[in-house]
């Protein structure tokens, strides 16, 4: 199978994730969309790795997963604590940190 | 290896700063005495430097120390003093104890002066009050850095201390103001922080431009000498040997980069406006620290770095700088006349005086440069005397406005008398030290640029105007009601002022100790710049009956000057 | 013997230091200490004088070298003294009259709580004045020059609680500073021309340089002299200086300090002799001032200000004489000495009158005082006769010689100068007679209930008597065998002038104008009663009362103009120089304020920005690759 299809899929997933981040207000959904974008990148990396025949892309994909996991931990904790204090998970309501 | 005297002189106040800052909050008075003790030890070391220094010995710098520091960039820890540096180190070390004594109560907790005991809350705050320690620690830190920048003969080393002294100065200006401010504490705090930020920004901009020039200098030396260097002496020698050729354009750019930073610090018109704010808002001792000590680094650096690193560019820029200096003299004096605030008036007077110093430096004559160096010392002492007495006055009435005073002479004659002497020194009355330096600067300028010299003499009339107007409005006339119960100088205050006045008198009558130290250094600088004094039109010695001195005057010093 | 010279200066200096730093402990003895040091200085002066007399005429110059004061490159100033006949004359005048006035002040200032300080200032003045006349170079002279200015400032403003006194003191110092500027420029010119500014070499080398340079030096010295000696155009401070206590007016503003300009010009004779243009300027200043002062003196009702106008005028005579060159120097100094006697005497007399009249200074409130204060009347009267040049008294000899020398200048110039001097003599006779008549003669114009005129105590009258004796005999003594001229000749050189009119004619003319002046004054103030309030007077009178509008001119041009200038500059400094910097800061702040709006706090808008940024980056990368 032509590896280029995987790239098309990755691009599609990334676009869906990006659109979700921009459009949705619920923090959990936004978060999931970010994960989607990250995984789209992972897919692209692995594909490139396969296409070029070296392992760099796979290594970076592992890094991304580790970072994503760390991000999930911190991010979910923040979202939960925001939900507890403000009883909402809308990202537009959490705008107190502006200058 | 001999004892590192120069390092020690700077290290003592640095250690003192740390020790003072570490004193527990409740033991404020101990911190004050500790700071005073350290400053006195520093002064003693400065005196040792002055006595160990041999005027006219071979080589431009003495008591040198040299260690590699950042090898990769050719930065060395290189210290050394010439006569000019010795004089200024002595001035700095001399003034700091007076600054500390004069500011003895400036950083006390507010409650102590306002309400002696108003419950335990105030007591608790008093016990945890630490700014007192901070105030004196910062003063000592400034002293250490100023002394190091007088000693450094490595351009990069100098740059570090030149910039680093901004930090403690920023906190001294922004953190401590006059106590009983008429407009209330909140507004005073706003003005203070404005002044402090202005001071910092002005000097940072100057410093950044200088940093670019410092790097440029390194690039040029690395390019031409193989290994880059910041060593002043090495660069001067390489130039003299023809190994280093900056190129006219590069030299001028680098010169301007250095000069800009020093002109901000000095300050030269039109880069002066931070000084009145800073001196107006800071307490009187800190104002003295600014104008009498820190600013001198600027004019000193012009002599040591601008002229010696870039002699060609210095000659090129001379006309423009002389005009700016002239403007500073007249402009500063005129603005001083128009001030309503005592401290701002003194600040503008200082701008006028810095104009004289820069004029003397760039007149490029022996008299001009020796005069400028003496001027730095004498201006330091005279401004300290005037400003500190003004500070004592202001602390009594709680106002800086001239119009709030009147008739002080009647109620506090000693205060008024010392104020007058300080004022007379500021207007360069003969017999007091500043006269000697001002006249030397004028003569030195006049002998090369007569018109500029004549215009500069206008400064002496204007100086009389602003000093006497200030004295008349504050000290004479009918006694104002608010002034009536003003106490005369206390013992501590007298201890501050009396030695300064005695020194002004002594150096006015017998400036020889100072000129002996300074003259050879000035000779060296002028030889680097390659300028000679203009010769008089008539050789008096050749005229019959016109032997220089008809009587038996020992002629021992004529050669010493060369 | 020459080692005593420094002591001359040191004695009053020590006195001043003691009195000013001594504190309240010395309040009760301060006046005695001050007088003691003044008299000690006089005694040293007399000893030195005796020593000089014992030497040959050419051997009468003593030097004392103390230490090298300033030495930088070719610039060298020594702390060294030179005592010659000219300095000696001044030393005796300064310490002699000075001592008398110290003694007088013991009585005059008796009730002043700050008497100790007053004597401290007086001693300081003596020290500075002696330094001025004993210095052996111009820079040291400059120290004394400004020193006397300081002492004058302190003493004019002695009663500081009076705003008028403080203002007068400030004005005196400032106007003097303008003159000092001239002196410092002159010294700088000397340094660039000769490489030195010691009297000996400079005065010996005048032949070696161009006349233009000497003229410049001369004019600058003249500017200095104008400031110190209250000559036109820097005369405006002297009238106001009368705010000081009367002994101060007598010592500083009549007998000694104001004559320093004459000393300077006479001392620099060699320069002026070689610069005829500068000499013309000197005589012009002298002639204008002698008339100016005399006219002002006619219109003043304040007894001290009338005398101040007279001082200005008499110094005008001296400056005129000094400007004539070798034919006039000796007479300038001779008039200076006799003037020192009679003018100091007149001022002390005026002080004595004020002392007895509750410090009233308006002559229109005096009248008929001769019976109440006989000693004052007689001493004042002798001084009066001396100043108008009554035959046989001091002023007659000295002033007559100056008028003669003015004619001897020759040509039209000689006639103009001689004419001005004669006219001045007439006006002098007029205004002095006016003072005399309004004070001591006529009907009483004071209120007998509140005012009880009385003679002053002995401590005040004795100095007045001594000075009166001097005003009577000094001129005659000096003129016997031309003693005074011969004494000064080695220093100032001397030539007999060749007058187009004979000496007898000049004397006769002087007598005629004298009688005219006195007669006119008697007709106006002696025959008719003097109104207690001043009549409006003619245009000239009104202008003269206001010092011929000089002050108004100064006020409008210098004071107002200066105020506007400084106010404008303060505004510009704030708005323009500082404004440029603050403007930069403000525009930075504005820009960041606008940029801040981008940070809305909405996560999704940040996401859009990130997306946009990424898109731009990618586009840029692609474009770069394309190129």
UniProtKB/TrEMBL annotation, chain A:
InterPro entries: NADH_UbQ_OxRdtase_chain4L/K (IPR001133), NUOK/Mnh_C1-like (IPR039428). The chain crosses the membrane at residues 6-23, 28-48, 60-83. It is an enzyme of class 7 (translocase). One of its GO terms (biological process) is ATP synthesis coupled electron transport. Its EC number is 7.1.1.-. Belongs to the complex I subunit 4L family. PANTHER family: NADH DEHYDROGENASE SUBUNIT 4L-RELATED, NADH-UBIQUINONE OXIDOREDUCTASE SUBUNIT ND4L. HAMAP family: NDH1_NuoK. NDH-1 is composed of 14 different subunits. Subunits NuoA, H, J, K, L, M, N constitute the membrane sector of the complex. This is NADH-quinone oxidoreductase subunit K. It comes from Streptomyces natalensis ATCC 27448. The lineage of its organism: Bacteria, Bacillati, Actinomycetota, Actinomycetes, Kitasatosporales. The gene is nuoK.
From TrEMBL, chain B:
Residues 152-461 form the NADH:quinone oxidoreductase/Mrp antiporter transmembrane domain. GO terms for cellular component: endomembrane system; membrane. Keywords: Membrane, Transmembrane, Transmembrane helix, Ubiquinone. It comes from the Bacteria. GO terms for molecular function: NADH dehydrogenase (ubiquinone) activity; NADH dehydrogenase activity; ubiquinone binding. Residues 540-562 are annotated as: Disordered. NCBIfam families: NDH_I_M (TIGR01972), PRK05846.1-4 (NF004500). Belongs to the complex I subunit 4 family. GO terms for biological process: ATP synthesis coupled electron transport; electron transport coupled proton transport. It comes from Streptomyces chattanoogensis. Signal peptide: none annotated. This is NADH:ubiquinone oxidoreductase subunit M.
From TrEMBL, chain C:
The chain crosses the membrane at residues 33-53, 89-106, 118-135, 181-204, 216-234, 246-266, 278-299, 315-334, 369-394, 414-441, 462-481, 501-525, 606-624. The lineage of its organism: Bacteria, Bacillati, Actinomycetota, Actinomycetes, Kitasatosporales. GO terms for cellular component: endomembrane system; membrane. This is NADH:ubiquinone oxidoreductase subunit L. The keyword Membrane applies. Residues 135-417 form the NADH:quinone oxidoreductase/Mrp antiporter transmembrane domain. InterPro entries: NADHpl_OxRdtase_5_subgr, ND/Mrp_TM, NU5C-like, Proton_antipo_N. It is a multi-pass membrane protein. It is found in: Endomembrane system; Membrane. Keywords: Membrane, Transmembrane, Transmembrane helix, Ubiquinone. Gene3D superfamilies: 1.20.5.2700. It comes from the Bacteria. One of its GO terms (biological process) is ATP synthesis coupled electron transport. Residues 69-119 form the NADH-Ubiquinone oxidoreductase (complex I) chain 5 N-terminal domain. One of its GO terms (molecular function) is NADH dehydrogenase (ubiquinone) activity.
């Amino acid at each position: 199978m032509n590896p280029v299809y995987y790239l098309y899929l990755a691009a599609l997933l990334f676009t869906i994730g990006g659109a979700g981040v921009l459009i949705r207000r619920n923090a959990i959904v936004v978060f999931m969309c970010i994960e989607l974008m990250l995984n789209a990148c992972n897919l692209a990396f692995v594909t490139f790795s396969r296409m070029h025949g070296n392992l760099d892309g796979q290594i970076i994909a592992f890094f991304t997963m580790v970072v994503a996991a760390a991000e999930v931990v911190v991010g979910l904790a923040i979202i939960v604590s925001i939900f507890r204090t403000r009883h909402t998970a809308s990202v537009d309501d959490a705008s107190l940190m502006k200058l | 290896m001999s004892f590192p005297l120069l390092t020690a002189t700077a290290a003592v106040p640095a250690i003192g700063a740390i020790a003072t800052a570490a004193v527990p909050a409740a033991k404020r008075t101990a911190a004050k005495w500790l700071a005073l003790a350290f400053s006195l030890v520093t002064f003693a070391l400065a005196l040792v430097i002055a006595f160990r220094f041999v005027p006219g010995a071979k080589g431009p710098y003495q008591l040198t120390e040299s260690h590699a520091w950042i090898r990769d960039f050719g930065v060395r820890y290189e210290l050394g003093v010439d006569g000019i540096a010795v004089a200024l180190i002595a001035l700095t070390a001399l003034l700091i104890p007076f600054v500390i004594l004069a500011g003895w109560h400036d950083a006390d907790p507010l409650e102590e002066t306002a309400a002696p005991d108003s419950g335990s809350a105030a007591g608790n705050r008093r016990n945890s009050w630490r700014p007192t320690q901070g105030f004196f620690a910062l003063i000592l830190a400034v002293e250490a850095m100023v002394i190091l920048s007088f000693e450094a003969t490595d351009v990069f080393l100098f740059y570090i201390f030149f910039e680093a002294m901004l930090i403690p100065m920023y906190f001294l200006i922004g953190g401590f103001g006059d106590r009983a401010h008429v407009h209330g504490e909140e507004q005073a705090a706003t003005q203070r922080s404005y002044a402090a930020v202005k001071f910092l920004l002005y000097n940072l901009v100057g410093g950044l431009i200088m940093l670019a020039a410092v790097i440029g200098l390194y690039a040029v030396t690395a390019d031409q000498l193989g290994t880059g260097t910041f060593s002043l002496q090495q660069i001067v020698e390489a130039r003299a040997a023809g190994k280093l050729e900056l190129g006219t354009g590069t030299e001028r750019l680098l010169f301007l980069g250095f000069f800009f930073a020093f002109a901000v610090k000095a300050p030269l018109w039109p880069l002066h406006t931070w000084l009145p704010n800073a001196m107006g808002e800071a307490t009187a001792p800190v104002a003295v620290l600014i104008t009498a000590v820190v600013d001198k680094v600027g004019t000193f650096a012009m002599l040591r770095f601008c002229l010696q690193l870039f002699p060609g560019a210095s000659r090129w820029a001379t006309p423009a700088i002389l005009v700016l200096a002239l403007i500073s003299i007249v402009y500063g004096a005129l603005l001083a006349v128009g001030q309503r605030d005592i401290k701002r008036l003194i600040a503008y007077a200082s701008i006028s005086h810095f104009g004289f110093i820069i004029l003397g430096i760039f007149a490029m004559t022996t008299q001009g440069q020796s005069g400028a160096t003496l001027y730095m010392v004498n201006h330091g002492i005279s401004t300290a005397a005037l400003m500190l007495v003004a500070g004592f006055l202001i602390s009594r009435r709680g106002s800086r406005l001239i119009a709030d005073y009147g008739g002080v002479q009647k109620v506090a004659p000693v205060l008024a008398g010392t104020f007058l002497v300080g004022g007379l020194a500021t207007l360069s009355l003969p017999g007091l030290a500043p006269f000697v330096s001002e006249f030397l600067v004028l003569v030195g300028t006049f002998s090369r640029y007569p018109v500029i010299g004549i215009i500069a003499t206008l400064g002496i009339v204007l100086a009389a105007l602003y000093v006497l107007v200030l004295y008349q409005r504050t000290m004479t006339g009918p006694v104002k009601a608010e002034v009536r119960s003003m106490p005369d100088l206390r013992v501590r205050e007298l201890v501050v002022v009396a030695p300064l006045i005695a020194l002004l008198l002594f150096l006015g009558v017998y400036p020889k100790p100072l000129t002996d130290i300074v003259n050879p250094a000035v000779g060296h600088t002028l030889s680097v710049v390659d300028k000679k004094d203009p010769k008089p039109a008539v050789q008096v010695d050749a005229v019959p009956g016109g032997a220089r001195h008809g009587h038996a005057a020992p002629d021992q010093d004529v050669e010493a000057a060369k | 013997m020459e080692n005593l010279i420094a002591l001359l200066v040191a004695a009053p200096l020590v006195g001043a230091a003691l009195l000013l730093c001594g504190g309240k402990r010395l309040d009760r003895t301060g006046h005695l200490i001050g007088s003691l040091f003044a008299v000690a200085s006089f005694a040293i002066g007399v000893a030195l004088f005796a020593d000089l007399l014992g030497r040959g005429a050419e051997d009468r110059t003593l030097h004392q070298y103390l230490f090298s004061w300033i030495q930088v490159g070719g610039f060298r100033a020594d702390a060294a003294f030179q005592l010659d006949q000219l300095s000696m004359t001044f030393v005796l005048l300064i310490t002699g009259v000075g001592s008398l006035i110290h003694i007088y002040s013991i009585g005059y200032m008796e009730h002043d709580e700050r008497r100790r300080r007053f004597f401290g200032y007086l001693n300081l003045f003596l020290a500075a004045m002696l330094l001025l006349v004993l210095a052996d170079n111009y820079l040291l002279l400059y120290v004394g020059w400004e020193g006397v200015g300081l002492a004058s400032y302190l003493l004019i403003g002695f009663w500081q609680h009076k705003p008028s006194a403080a203002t007068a003191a400030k004005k005196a110092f400032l106007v003097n500073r303008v003159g000092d500027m001239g002196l410092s420029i002159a010294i700088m010119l000397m340094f660039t021309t000769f490489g030195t500014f010691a009297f000996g070499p400079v005065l010996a080398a005048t032949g070696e340089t161009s006349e233009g340079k000497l003229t410049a030096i001369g004019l600058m010295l003249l500017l200095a002299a104008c400031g110190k000696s209250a000559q036109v155009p820097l005369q405006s401070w002297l009238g106001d200086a009368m705010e000081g206590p009367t002994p101060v007016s007598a010592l500083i503003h009549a007998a000694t300090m104001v004559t320093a300009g004459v000393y300077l010009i006479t001392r620099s004779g060699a320069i002026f002799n070689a610069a005829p243009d500068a000499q013309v300027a000197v005589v012009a200043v002298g002639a204008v001032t002698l008339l100016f002062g005399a006219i002002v003196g006619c219109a003043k009702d304040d007894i001290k200000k009338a005398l101040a106008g007279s001082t200005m005028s008499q110094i005008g005579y001296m400056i005129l004489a000094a400007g004539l060159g070798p034919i006039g120097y000796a007479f300038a100094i001779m008039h200076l000495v006799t003037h020192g006697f009679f003018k100091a005497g007149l001022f002390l007399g005026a002080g004595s009158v004020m002392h007895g009249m509750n410090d009233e200074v308006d002559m229109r409130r005096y009248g008929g005082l001769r019976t109440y204060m006989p000693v004052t009347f007689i001493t004042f009267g002798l001084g009066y006769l001396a100043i108008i040049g009554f035959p046989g008294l001091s002023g007659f000899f000295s002033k007559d010689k100056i008028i003669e020398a003015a004619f001897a200048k020759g040509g039209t110039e000689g006639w103009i100068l001689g004419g001005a001097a004669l006219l001045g003599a007439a006006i002098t006779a007029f205004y002095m007679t006016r003072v005399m008549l309004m004070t001591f003669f006529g009907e009483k114009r004071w209120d007998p209930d509140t005012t009880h005129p009385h003679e002053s105590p002995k401590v005040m009258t004795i100095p007045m008597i001594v000075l009166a004796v001097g005003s009577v005999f000094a001129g005659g003594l000096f003129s016997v065998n031309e003693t005074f001229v011969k004494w000064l000749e080695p220093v100032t050189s001397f030539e007999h002038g060749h007058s187009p009119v004979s000496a007898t004619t000049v004397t006769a003319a002087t007598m005629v104008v004298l009688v005219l002046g006195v007669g006119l004054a008697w007709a106006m103030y002696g025959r008719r009663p003097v109104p207690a309030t001043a009549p409006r007077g003619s245009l000239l009178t009104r202008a003269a009362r206001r010092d011929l509008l000089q002050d108004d001119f100064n006020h409008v041009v210098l004071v107002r103009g200066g105020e506007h200038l400084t106010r404008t500059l303060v505004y510009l400094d704030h708005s323009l120089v500082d404004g440029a910097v603050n403007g930069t800061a403000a525009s930075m702040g504005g820009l960041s304020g606008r940029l801040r709006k981008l940070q809305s706090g909405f996560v999704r808008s940040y996401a859009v920005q990130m997306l946009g940024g990424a898109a731009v980056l990618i586009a840029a990368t692609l474009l770069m690759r394309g190129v």
